[in-house]
Design brief:
The structure is a single chain. By secondary structure, the protein is of the alpha+beta class. The protein has 15 helices and 18 strands. It folds into 4 domains: about 1-335, Kinesin motor domain (Kinesin, 3-Layer(aba) Sandwich), CATH 3.40.850; about 345-390; about 405-480; about 515-630. It is elongated. The chain binds adenosine-5'-triphosphate. Adenosine-5'-triphosphate (ATP) binds near residues 97, 98 and 99. This is Kinesin-16. InterPro entries: Kinesin-like_fam (IPR027640), Kinesin_motor_dom (IPR001752), Kinesin_motor_dom_sf (IPR036961), P-loop_NTPase (IPR027417). One of its GO terms (molecular function) is microtubule motor activity. Belongs to the TRAFAC class myosin-kinesin ATPase superfamily. Kinesin family.
Length: about 625
């Protein structure tokens, strides 16, 4: 009897979480997951107020590769499946925690792809050993969406029924496809995934809103030491839908979320029931949801089950992660009893033998080359051996014996269960005893503390009493002597001194005031004198200014008259001399170009220009003076 193999995979923080400044609160240490609960986003050690520790069969950290996950968690179950055991690999976890990445991944390198390559490698190896070994591998791919089973390979098939025949659970009318190479499965999954209901959720923009189940069915006919061994096994690989805490406002999304959370909660309950009731699986409510019904022969029965719980390391996902870790912890305690699905039933075995005889007989009858004839002879021997087994008189006896062995096996398995339960009880009572011991020692500690406090309290009371006594005694002493009188005398002396010093200061201040007043009168007198002097000075200045102004006006009038005279004289010169000279220049203008050598003329022109400039300046100056005169007037 073995436990469900439980692994936890921590994915790295993804872009969305990093951009929201979320931090990692989960750490993997070998097979243990440590999770911190912090007071705030900082997540440093000082803010941690609780830590959680869970141990599993395997823990994968952020850096673990897809190959490692497959090798450590899934490969053994795949090997068991090839040996004829049923198997189940489930990815469980919150929305966006990495279930699809683990099971499939967009690069097609998750558990499913690695499983299919391993299966076909196995076929090759076995066929190389004996070419008569035969394998038939088929696959079905369906989903449970809103409690409906839908065939992903034939979308017209909706709401399929789940049936049970001889403790085997199967989906009615489901389509199966035979796989002849790994690529066949890849194609099937691609077709199926396009039909898989996907919707955008708050946590993951490409979130799967349904539980998807890929089932591989393997029928093998192997020749082991010339004996035919036939097995038939089934491997289910589940990518469970993620649970969402936040509620969408869309009714359709709300309905999906309700169904997903309900079915996952029922899965949790069923696991709890299995753990509590390992022996009697008849009382376990597998029928409460489609998911648990389908998993009935996986989690509860003849199966090697692997649960990979995916978690996000982000502090924002604390509660979902804690729930997932608790769920995985519960699954760890489930015990399973898997058996190889060899065709053991005698009626089935006889039927198989007959078919095998027919097949071999057919081969024998076919004519072939010497090698084939040798092979035929060997086959004939096998046929005879099989016939003799069927016709043997001991066969009935053997069948009875076989039944007895089966019953004995059941009894043994029951007693093993009882032993397990006893062990559990013993472990529990040991745990309870330990807890009691711890509690007792804690109680003792508390009691010692209380005694200590009481003692301290008593000491305090004593000290207070002593102090009160001292006070009382000192009160009596005061009555008995004249110490108080002496104190009063001293204080009275001090007051008189103070008053004297105040009076002295007052005298000083009065004296100061008088001095100030005297000074003030003197200053006022000086001020008045200065004002008189200023007035006198102002008057004499004004008088002087008047005289100067008048002088200036007279002088400027004289000067102006002079200038005007000068101007008139210049205008006269200008009219008499300049204008005729200019006219003369103009006349000679054309000649000047030809006769550059007329130096006297050039000299004249130069002088004339200087003259004109001077005259202009004079005129301008005269105009300025005119303006000046206007101002004075
Ligand atoms: N181990 C990992 N390493 C790197 N990226 C990862 C890992 N696991 C998950 N991721 C990334 O995280 C995102 C969410 O992962 P995934 O879609 O597998 O989550 P899910 O649990 O299947 O979500 P849902 O339940 O909503 O379908 C994806 O972008 C995926 O590539």
């Amino acid at each position: 009897m073995s436990n469900v193999f439980v692994a936890v995979r921590i994915r790295p923080l993804i872009g969305r979480e990093i951009s929201h400044n979320e931090v990692s609160i989960v750490e993997a240490n070998e097979n243990t997951v440590h999770m911190r609960e912090s007071m705030n986003q900082q997540n440093d050690d000082t803010n941690v107020y609780s830590t959680y520790k869970f141990t599993y069969d395997a823990v994968f950290n952020e850096e673990t590769t897809q190959e490692e996950v497959y090798t450590k968690a899934a490969q053994q179950t795949v090997t068991n499946f090839l040996e004829g055991y049923n198997g189940c690999i489930m990815a469980y976890g919150q929305t966006g925690s990495g279930k699809t990445h683990t099971i499939m991944s967009s690069e097609f390198d998750g558990v499913i792809p690695q499983t299919i390559y391993e299966i076909f490698d196995y076929f090759q190896t076995k066929t190389a050993v004996n070419s008569n070994n035969q394998f038939v591998l088929r696959a079905s791919y369906y989903q449970i969406y809103n409690e409906n089973v839908l065939d992903l390979l034939n979308p017209t098939q909706i709401n399929l029924k789940i049936r049970e025949v001889q403790h085997q659970i199967y989906v009615e009318n489901l389509s199966y496809f035979q796989l002849t190479c790994p690529q066949d499965l890849e194609k099937l999954i691609k077709i199926g995934n396009t039909n898989r209901i996907q919707a955008e959720t708050k946590m993951n923009t490409n979130s799967s809103r349904s539980h998807s189940i890929l089932t591989l069915y393997l029928d093998q006919s192997l020749f082991i030491k010339n004996e035919l061994v036939q097995t038939s096994s089934k491997l289910q690989i589940l990518d469970l839908a993620g649970s969402e805490r936040a509620h969408s406002t869309q009714p359709e999304r709300q309905r999906e979320t309700k169904h997903i959370n309900q079915s996952l909660a029922i899965l949790g309950n069923v696991m709890q029931q299995i753990v509590q009731n390992q022996q009697n699986s008849t009382h376990i409510q597998f029928r409460d949801s489609k998911l648990t019904r389908i998993l009935q022969d996986s989690v509860g029965g003849n199966c090697k089950t692997v649960l990979i719980t995916n978690i996000s390391p982000s502090n924002a996902c604390f509660y979902e992660t804690l729930n997932s870790l608790k769920f995985a912890d519960r699954a760890k305690q489930i015990k399973q009893h898997a058996e190889i699905n060899q065709i053991e039933d005698f009626s089935v075995r006889i039927q198989k033998y007959r078919l095998e005889i027919q097949r071999l007989q057919q081969k024998i009858n076919e004519k072939g080359n010497p090698e084939e004839q040798q092979m035929q002879q060997q086959l004939q021997k096998q046929v005879d051996m099989l016939k003799s087994q069927i016709q043997s008189p001991k066969f009935d006896e053997f069948q009875k014996l076989f039944q007895q062995i089966k019953q004995l096996d059941e009894v043994r398995s029951q007693s093993a269960n009882q032993q397990d339960q006893l062990n559990n009880l013993r472990n529990q009572s040991i745990k309870q005893r330990d807890i009691l011991l711890i509690l007792t020692s804690k109680l003792q500690e508390k009691e010692t503390q209380i005694q200590q406090f009481l003692k301290e309290l008593q000491d305090c009371y004593q000290q207070i009493a002593q102090s009160e006594e001292k006070i009382y005694q000192s009160g009596q002493n005061v009555d008995d002597n004249d110490e108080e009188e002496y104190t009063i005398d001293i204080s009275q002396n001090t007051e008189t001194d103070q008053i004297l010093s105040y009076e002295q200061k007052m005298d000083e201040l009065v004296q100061l005031k008088e001095e100030f007043t005297e000074e003030n009168v003197q200053l006022e007198r000086e001020w008045k004198q200065m004002q008189l002097q200023i007035k006198y000075e102002q008057k004499s200045l004004e008088d002087r200014a008047d005289i100067v102004m008048r002088q200036v006006q007279v002088e400027s009038a004289d000067y102006l008259t002079e200038c005007l005279k000068e101007r008139d004289a210049l205008i006269k010169i200008f009219a008499e001399r300049v204008i005729p000279s200019v006219n003369e220049l103009k006349k000679h203008d054309s000649k000047t170009a030809a006769n550059n050598n007329d130096h006297s003329l050039q000299e004249k022109a130069k002088n004339l220009q200087i003259y004109i400039r001077n005259v202009r300046e004079l005129i301008e100056t005269s105009e300025l003076r005119q303006k000046l005169q206007e101002l004075f007037e």
